[in-house]
Amino acid sequence: MSSLNLVPASTEDYRRIAERKLPQFLFDYLDGGSYAETTLRANVSAYQKIKLKQTVLKDVSAVKTGVELFGTPYGMSAGLAPIGMGGMYGARGELQAKAAADALNIPFTLSTVGICSLEEVAQVSDKPFWFQLYMLKDRGAVQQMLQRAQGVGVDTLVFTVDLAVLGARYRDKRNGLSGGTSLAGRVRTAMNLAGKLSWIRSVGLGGKPHTFGNLAEYVPNASRPDDFQAWITQQVDASVTWKDIEWLRGIWPGKLIVKGILNSEDALEAVQVGADGIVISNHGGRQLDCVDATIDILPEIKAAVGDATAVLLDGGIRSGQDIFKAYALGADFTLVGRPWVYALAAGGKQSITELLTTFKSEIEISMALTGITQSHEINPSVIRTRA
């Protein structure tokens, strides 16, 4: 017999609620990946193949999930990953996510293409947040955004490097986000939207303006996310090399994390240009399909760089136990993406807070039942097998 489903308990529960509440094109933009979505599925399933070693009769009466990264203490080894258009999934969504992250004492990362601006997010609290940026053809715009980030107290820059070209995302194409929609298709989209009254009230009307806050001055006549997406597509720079990251390192005084690393050679290049950290990432399975699941490639990359740079990981994390497994296999920190946006769409700040609290509890339980009380004690010995 199925449960009553009265209260969401897992990422999948929030995902189902989000699917019910959101316009189809927005849900698919969040939920989908590139091509056949092989990597998207592998990111998740790879965690399920990792078995833990249970240990009993240890004193686990005082389990502590706290960690330290770049000299800053956090409540657990996870932060909120940058997600584009977050404010389309909940009214001023990035503000709600920042407040939830603050409540759990973990970092929030604002996307370049977030709906809310750097300045707006900084008003949530005096706790620093991270900022994610792409290398745009307009280097002047890059420098200006870095100055703005510094001006509002951002001390950690997450620089995405796996977007030389855009991955082919079939769900978006089918939903007409790539253009070419017929009149009948537009009518179907309107009919789907008309059935999402709670979203229309809370986000469509209550969450305005629906602009990319960080880019407003560069696209002054834009009024919808589509207008900004066109500018971003034109600004994607396929000529970027490690020399450009050296330039970036020279002008950014804070911590620099290079996001989009999937092999040891690139990881070592990041170390050479002075990156304080790397994110092992396949863009959530949204760029090149049929690449490694991030958790699978983690041990190899960690062995290559050692302690020369902090190793972060995203992709496929759906529970606190996944975070625990990543930490055990060598990650210094993780970034959680889709789950926080599912929760935002399901119930705003409160749901994000509840999901993150669940993740923290799952880490605590995983630690206790493997005989560990401190995060620094987590190591590969808690892993029984890897299928």
Q: Mean pLDDT across all residues, rounded? A: 94
Could you give the order of strands across the largest sheet?
Answer: 4-11-10-9-8-7-6-5
Tell me, briefly, the overall form. globular
Summing up helix and strand content along with how strands pair, one would put the structural category as alpha/beta
Tell me the total number of β-strands.
12
Fold-level CATH name: TIM Barrel
> What's the CATH class, please?
Alpha Beta
Can you give me a brief rundown of this structure?
The chain is an alpha/beta fold and 387 residues long. The chain is built from 15 helices and twelve strands.
Q: Could you name the key traits of this structure?
A:
387 residues; alpha/beta; TIM Barrel; globular
What would you say this structure looks like, in words?
The protein is α/β, with parallel strands linked by helices and 387 residues long. It has a single domain, classed as TIM Barrel. The chain contains 15 helices and twelve strands. It has an eight-stranded parallel β-sheet with strand order 4-11-10-9-8-7-6-5. Strands 1-12 form a two-stranded antiparallel ribbon. Helix 1 packs antiparallel against helix 15, helix 12 crosses helix 13 and helix 14 packs across helix 15. It is globular. It starts with 10 loop residues before the first helix and ends with a strand. 46% of the residues are buried. The model has no long low-confidence stretch (mean pLDDT 94).
